[in-house]
Specification:
Order of helices and strands: HEHEHEHEEEHEHHEEEHHEEHEHEHEHEH
CATH superfamily of the largest domain: Succinyl-CoA synthetase domains
Number of helices: 14
Structural class: alpha+beta
Mean pLDDT: 93
Number of strands: 16
Number of domains: 3
CATH architecture of the largest domain: 3-Layer(aba) Sandwich
Largest sheet: 6 strands, antiparallel
Bound molecules: guanosine-5'-diphosphate, manganese (II) ion
Length: 401
């Protein structure tokens, strides 16, 4: 599960990580008032207006704007709330922006990258940092891998203070910055663990220019991103409450409700499959035969008629879908039960696009009889003898259509 930057900042603040004050608005009319408020609080005239969407790359897309007056803040807010944001992470269709964060702006001496995530190869969590902050870490990894430093977390005792200090030294923090940076690293690692996060990222972590309060500069987080383990949300009620359904694909939300794993893709062949491995190989074989899957959909091992009906509804609600391939392996699940579910679901939902069904496994003969008996009711139905046959039939039906 993803959350917005403003929610991530709340988490950082709750762990004692310094974050400039800010407030969220949904209406450009509130921008001027909030600008006055946050700048007064921080004693500056600089503020930053930031789109709150579940995608990064906002700065380059023009959706992070520095402003120095209430009028500029209003103008930036109006622009962001009435234009789609297109960034490297959104795809060309872009994203609607419904919420903005207006935060006190800061002067930046230097930007760093800091994150905690899982290192699968080492089977433990890792603190990753770079003195090339403000840039996507993927770009740094590609172009200047030596600029990335890591400290691995002990699975039992987590990040240790000596590791945080060593990391701060290696990044080039100086004087009082070292203690501030190490404290932030320990707090971030603590949040990552206590909140069941799969990613806790501050990009950029910054150092401000020297001031009378901070002769060595202050270390601050000015952007944050958290991803959480969905399977742990049952014990993370406060995190689960941060969920913003308007940021997710509505079909994916509906699917979750019925226990279906659904991911929308760009192609035109809808897939209904049981088992994630089978779903992936089904998508591969569609591609192999020149087609393009419209989605990944795993109805799971114990799909009932209700779930299959919902799965069809979700697939057919995608206007790009010009054909549907059902590929079911009856292991624990019996093919005849699935066949009946498919037939009644197809009747209920109503099919106008080609439907190709391939069933194999327990009670397959009985299932074929059921499918054969349904031809009159579902005129676009074809059955397939194996996976290759199914892929060929559905791609040629879609090409012909
Ligand atoms: P992202 O592009 O979605 O990651 O958004 P960020 O919040 O990281 O902002 C992008 C860039 O804008 C940062 O790397 C900074 O260079 C700049 N920026 C953001 N906030 C401030 C601020 O308060 N002051 C200054 N001077 N620059 C900022
Ligand atoms: Mn950022």
């Amino acid at each position: 599960m993803k959350v917005h930057e403003y929610q991530a900042r709340q988490l950082l603040a709750s762990a004692g990580i310094p974050v400039p004050p800010g407030e969220v608005i949904t209406d450009a009319g509130e921008a001027a008032r909030v600008y006055e408020q946050v700048t007064a609080k921080a004693g500056t005239d600089l503020a930053v207006v930031k789109a709150q969407v579940h995608a990064g790359g906002r700065g380059k897309a023009g959706f992070v704007k520095l402003v120095r007056s209430a009028a500029e803040a209003s103008e930036a807010a109006k622009f962001m709330l009435s234009n789609k944001m297109v960034s490297v992470q959104t795809g060309p269709q872009g994203l609607d922006v419904r919420k903005l964060l207006i935060a006190a702006g800061v002067d930046i001496e230097k930007e760093y990258y800091l994150a905690v995530t899982t290192d699968r190869a080492k089977r433990t969590d890792v603190l990753i940092a770079s003195s090339e902050g403000g840039v996507e870490i993927e770009t740094v990894a590609r172009e200047n891998p030596d600029a990335i430093v890591k400290e691995w977390l002990d699975p039992l005792i987590g990040l240790q203070p000596f590791q945080a200090r060593r990391m701060a030294f290696r990044l080039g923090f100086k004087g009082k910055q070292i203690g501030q940076a190490a404290k932030i690293m320990l707090a971030l690692a603590g949040l990552y663990r206590s909140k069941d996060a799969s990613l806790a990222e501050i990009n950029p972590l910054i150092v401000t220019p020297a001031s009378s309060d901070y002769p060595d500069g202050q270390v601050l987080a000015i952007d944050a991103k958290f991803n959480f383990d969905d399977n742990a949300l049952f014990r993370q009620k406060d995190v689960a409450e941060m969920f913003d359904p308007t940021e997710e694909n509505p079909a994916e939300i509906k699917a979750k409700k019925y226990g279906l794993s659904y991911i929308a893709l760009d192609g035109n062949i809808g897939c209904l499959v049981n088992g994630a491995g089978l779903a992936m190989s089904t998508m591969d074989i569609i591609k192999l035969h020149g087609g393009d899957p419209a989605n990944f959909l795993d109805v799971g091992g114990s799909a009932n008629e209700e779930a299959v009906t919902e799965a069809f509804r979700i697939i057919l609600s995608d206007s790009k879908v010009q054909g549907v391939l059902v590929n079911i392996f009856g292991g624990i699940m019996q093919c005849d039960i699935i066949a009946s579910a498919i037939v009644s679901a197809a009747k209920e939902v109503g099919f106008s696009v080609p439907l190709v069904v391939r069933l194999e496994g327990t009670n397959v003969d009985r299932a074929r009889e059921i499918m054969d008996g349904a031809r009159g009711d579902i005129p676009t139905l074809q059955t397939a003898s194996d996976l290759t046959d199914a892929a060929k039939k559905v791609t040629s039906a879609v090409t012909a259509a």
